[in-house]
Design a protein that fits this description.
Radius of gyration: 19 Å
Distance between the termini: 51 Å
Strand content: 35-45%
Order of helices and strands: HEHEHEEEEEEEEEEEH
Number of helices: 4
CATH topology: Alpha-D-Glucose-1,6-Bisphosphate, Chain A, domain 4
CATH class: Alpha Beta
Shape: globular
Strand order of the largest sheet: 1-2-13-12-9-8-7-5-6
CATH architecture: 2-Layer Sandwich
CATH superfamily: START domain
Number of domains: 1
Structural class: alpha+beta
Helix content: 10-25%
């Protein structure tokens, strides 16, 4: 009886932690968490702490190994009215040259900042292989592409993007850093340790949802000095850009 009570007590304590580890669920055949809000510039977000993130399992739709572990996992969900298709929204994602026009709220600076000072699509992983923005026709399922940005905080970074799904009502694009990311004077992310999946989902007639899933893997050098709130604010700005909204005309999630 004593052992049974001890077991039940442990289960009661552990259950909320396990439940929280399932609090970030992208739209991959199950109800998304956090849920999509009403259409508008504000987003819903969930941030898992280190213990919860380590228990989180990447869903198959991301292509990330299910046995891989994370130091940080967060989900950002937003909704908006739009009469077009996912292909039209992919065109916005492929317009890499527009990244410097996206502004996010920097809590540390207390002001709106551009996510990048410069950006360009690339012909290959070399940061010098600048080219024109990606056309919609190039963003086909199972295709991979590269882009470069001079991040306003972390400096020059090369990313790889992969189109995992593309249909009229849904598209999924993943992104990860190819080169190390830094926040002077400390290298913050090893290559491949900053990963994101962007889901473009039709939710009804002229109603769309954007779900951005971010995670940091458990590499030897990752997540040093970048607060999760800053990542959320950047993702909220990216949602507003995809939705065709001003990125800096409404409060940020973390102000």
């Amino acid at each position: 009886m004593i052992l049974l009570r001890a077991f039940l007590a442990m289960a009661i304590v552990a259950s909320p932690v396990c439940a929280r580890a399932n609090a970030v669920v992208p739209p991959c055949g199950a109800a998304e968490k956090p849920a999509f809000p009403e259409p508008g510039p504000m987003v819903e977000t969930t941030i898992l702490d280190a213990a919860e993130s380590s228990r989180w399992t990447p869903p198959a739709c991301t292509g990330w190994p299910p046995a891989s572990h994370s130091k940080l996992v967060l989900g950002v969900a937003g909704s908006f009215r739009f009469a077009g298709t996912s292909e039209d929204l992919l065109t916005r994602l492929g317009a890499i040259s527009q990244l410097p026009k996206i502004r996010y709220w920097s809590k540390s600076a207390g002001s709106w900042r551009a996510v990048a000072t410069a950006a360009s699509a690339l012909s290959n992983p070399s940061p010098s292989s600048h080219r024109a923005d990606f056309a919609q026709a190039e963003l086909q399922p199972r295709s991979e592409h590269y882009f470069w940005e001079n991040d306003s905080r972390a400096g020059e970074i090369v990313y790889k993007i992969a189109v995992r799904e593309r249909a009229a009502d849904r598209a999924v694009v993943t992104r990860e850093n190819v080169t190390p990311m830094g926040q002077f004077p400390i290298l913050t992310f090893d290559p491949g340790s900053s990963q994101a999946a962007i889901f473009l989902v039709r939710r009804g007639p002229d109603l769309w949802g954007v779900y951005i899933l971010e995670r940091v893997t458990d590499g030897e050098r990752s997540l040093i000095g970048i607060p999760s709130e800053s990542i959320v604010n950047r993702d909220a700005a990216l949602f507003r850009y995809i939705a065709g909204m001003p990125t800096d005309k409404a409060p940020a999630p973390f102000h």
